[in-house]
Design brief:
alpha+beta, disordered N terminus, three-stranded antiparallel β-sheet, three-stranded mixed β-sheet, single chain
């Protein structure tokens, strides 16, 4: 038996109810599906917002996409989520990536910053790389730097390459470090 059209109390047949916003919602969902990095950023922001609420910490969350990576920043005066030498931040980034992967089913390369720590650290590392490049160029000998995490080593490798020299990573975690080599 086929479904009969809905009838109003006066006996007239009502048209099926439609919500014009339904198509807009579908378009928004399509936009999210079209850009998985936007979805990553939103999932991460939701996760971190909930974490801040549970921990009763203040902070605003900003998201943006740069290149092939979603970035999420917690804007705060507190260093609690940074920890000594960024160790808490690194752990929180991994937890956030796991939350994104659980929600989306895809591995995340999301970058998290708290209280501007990563931006400040990037500037410090660019200075360290610049000084190492100068030492290698003036002495002609290789220069070994202090141990760094993968994020930090990448910044140094990129800076050394931009200066026209070569660098490599040596050692095992957590003592893995960058060595800047003289030009051949």
């Amino acid at each position: 038996m086929a479904d009969a059209p809905d009838q109003a109390a006066d006996g007239s047949v009502a048209a099926p109810a439609t919500d014009p916003s339904d198509s807009d919602d579908e378009d928004e969902d399509d936009d999210e599906d079209d850009n998985p990095l936007e979805t990553e950023a939103e999932v991460a922001a939701d996760y971190l917002e909930e974490l801040l609420d549970i921990a009763d910490l203040d902070g605003d969350i900003d998201t943006f996409i740069e290149g092939d990576r979603a970035h999420v920043s917690i804007v705060s005066e507190s260093q609690v989520l940074v920890g000594p030498e960024g160790t808490v931040l690194d752990a929180l980034q991994e937890l956030t990536r796991l939350a994104v992967m659980t929600e989306t089913g895809n591995r995340s390369r999301l970058m998290l910053d708290v209280a501007g720590y990563r931006d400040t650290r990037r500037q410090e590392l660019l200075q360290v790389a610049g000084e190492a490049v100068e030492r290698v160029q003036s002495a002609g000998e290789r220069v070994s730097l202090a141990p760094m995490n993968p994020f930090e080593r990448k910044i140094v490798h990129d800076a050394v390459a931009a200066a026209g020299l070569v660098s490599e990573s040596e050692g095992e975690e957590p003592r893995r470090h960058v060595v800047v080599l003289p030009a051949s």
